[in-house]
Design goal:
Blueprint (H helix, E strand, L loop, with lengths): L27 E4 L6 H5 L4 E6 L2 H12 L2 H5 L18 H11 L26 H10 L6 E5 L11 E4 L23 H11 L4 E4 L3
Helix pairs in contact: 2-4
């Protein structure tokens, strides 16, 4: 499995720390709190099922799963500070994708290029030709991926590696959908236990929050 780089920056991404989690035991990985799917990308998982309650994230992933390389290449670079995605006739999902690059490390996409989002210090990748080239190069690796609007409760019973990464407790307020049933006995640990019990023989990795 070839390692993939993030398709877009996102608040709470686990890509940089995925190396500290066990490798997937199965070809199929399920992430019930998808976000930017850092775990599955880091390990280059060929078959991935993503679930998320945020329609913006689901929209971005749905777009990436159907878009062509030609369409990505044709997206505007927004190289000028102040330029906005609203200045272009683009699908809403494409605007959100670009917006996450314009607002690195955030849970919400921006519309306009700012001086901060144009910074290239520390070789930080920003939206433009290089970001588009990364996406184009990796699109083919998503052929076995899917995304569904909803939580882990809607997942089917099957043997897979489960990467359970619920929202942060306090800093999770930045997510549009941050409510998880933490009142379950045992707290967050019980969430993974519940998923593991419901989806028999599933392998659950619980991410730290």
């Amino acid at each position: 499995m070839q390692q993939l780089r993030p398709f877009f920056p996102y608040y709470g991404s686990k890509w940089n720390v995925a190396r500290y989690y066990p490798k997937p035991d199965y070809d199929l990985v399920i992430e019930p709190f998808a976000g930017s799917a850092g775990y599955s990308l880091y390990y280059g998982s060929p078959r991935v099922r993503l679930f998320d309650k945020d329609p913006i994230l689901v929209g971005v992933w749905s777009y990436l799963l159907r878009v062509t390389s030609k369409e990505i290449f044709a997206l505007p670079d927004l190289l000028t500070v102040g330029d906005s995605v609203d200045n272009y006739d683009l699908p809403q999902e494409a605007k959100w994708l670009i917006g996450f690059w314009l607002n690195r490390g955030s849970a919400s996409p921006k519309k306009s290029r700012t001086a901060y989002s144009a910074r290239t210090d520390r070789s930080q990748l920003t939206w433009g030709p290089r970001a588009k080239a990364r996406i184009i190069e990796q699109l083919g690796a998503l052929s076995g991926w899917s995304i569904e609007l909803g939580g882990y409760e809607g997942a089917q019973d099957e043997e897979a590696t489960w990467f359970v990464d619920p929202p942060y407790v306090e800093k999770g307020k930045f997510y549009r959908h941050n409510q998880v049933d933490y009142a379950l006995p045992g707290g967050v640990g019980a969430l993974a236990e519940r998923a593991s019990h419901r989806l028999r023989r599933a392998k659950c990795h619980l991410a730290s929050i």
